Amino acid sequence: MPAIRRKPHLVTAIEDKRGLLAHGDGVAPHRHTDGQLLYPSAGVLATTTERGTWVAPPNRVAWTPPGFEHYHRAYGRTEVRVVEVSGALCASLPDRPTVFAVSPLLREALLVLTDGRELRPDARNRLREVVVDELVDVPEEALYLPEPADDRLRAVTDLLHADPATPSTLAELGRTVGASERTLSRLFRSELGMSFHRWRSLLRVQHALVRLVEGDAVIDTATRLGWANPASLIEAFTAIVGQTPGRYQMELRRRLLMEA
């Protein structure tokens, strides 16, 4: 993984604001006293902890609870809107990092809080409460890729991270790392809560989110990430992200035009 270049303006305890990250830029491992919402109004933002990686493409917001060590990495030119959430409001949100979909009301509230305008403290607090209220009833997005603790399973996931497109079966990967297919299959279920095929599909979809942001065609993305055909990518991507890759790219282009 490329080195994480520290961006202090996103690490320090700040009030609501926005920052710009270039492709490949990152925020070094850190913790927050308060909770934090990060909304990438453009680009893709990955949040990684020891438990795994959460990916937030445009129109998603990443939530990190207080005290959770994590780091971020940007894919594509990424504008990040940062909203701090005090301890009292944090109790209404999950106690682990999460990605949520962004409703029109939530998006407007996030933009108002982070566009630099002067707001009365009581008005800002009420608007932050609106943001949290919107998130309470929004289902979590399936954009989380868990990471294992078991050394045998981690050896397998490391191979897949290095080459998401590999066609190797679990049995073949097991022979490489010195573990049986049966043992690895059990570990995927017990440690990560999903099958090997589900985990690899999530990994590939996370990579697809990045490639599509960078402008790769759907057919090229499918080929480079190991899907048998574009239809297989479309099916997996839609099931996890909630929209087709083509629609996802259309929305990205529309946002860029709006900001131009």
Automatic annotation (TrEMBL):
<feature type="domain" description="HTH araC/xylS-type">
    <location>
        <begin position="154"/>
        <end position="251"/>
    </location>
</feature>
<dbReference type="InterPro" id="IPR009057">
    <property type="entry name" value="Homeodomain-like_sf"/>
</dbReference>
<dbReference type="InterPro" id="IPR018060">
    <property type="entry name" value="HTH_AraC"/>
</dbReference>
<protein>
    <submittedName>
        <fullName>Helix-turn-helix transcriptional regulator</fullName>
    </submittedName>
</protein>
<dbReference type="Pfam" id="PF12833">
    <property type="entry name" value="HTH_18"/>
</dbReference>
<keyword id="KW-0238">DNA-binding</keyword>
<dbReference type="InterPro" id="IPR003313">
    <property type="entry name" value="AraC-bd"/>
</dbReference>
<dbReference type="InterPro" id="IPR014710">
    <property type="entry name" value="RmlC-like_jellyroll"/>
</dbReference>
<keyword id="KW-0804">Transcription</keyword>
<keyword id="KW-0805">Transcription regulation</keyword>
<dbReference type="Pfam" id="PF02311">
    <property type="entry name" value="AraC_binding"/>
</dbReference>
<dbReference type="InterPro" id="IPR011051">
    <property type="entry name" value="RmlC_Cupin_sf"/>
</dbReference>
